[in-house]
Amino acid sequence: MKKSLITSGLLALTMLSASSAFAEANCQAHPKNEQIPQADFQKALEKHGFTIKKFKTDGNCYEMYGKSKGGKKVEMYFDTKDGKIVKSEID
Which of 1, 51, 79, 82 is the most exposed, fewest CB within 10 Å of its CB? Predict the structure, then answer.
């Protein structure tokens, strides 16, 4: 179940434009037992070609700083339950 949530959330990564940015990241709080384990989510991002420089929990979001598959600098915030992108900034 969680594996399919990670996959569906990461599929949205392929739809990102080269320079998308949103206002403040606003993630919904989820109980710990409903969250995708942080290590699993990091591995999924790396499997999709991301190089992670820094990964942490920020408020109710997972926050990632690193590089995209194409080598662009990225800052992304994800929902901890379904892995959907809440905010992204790509340079």
Answer: 1
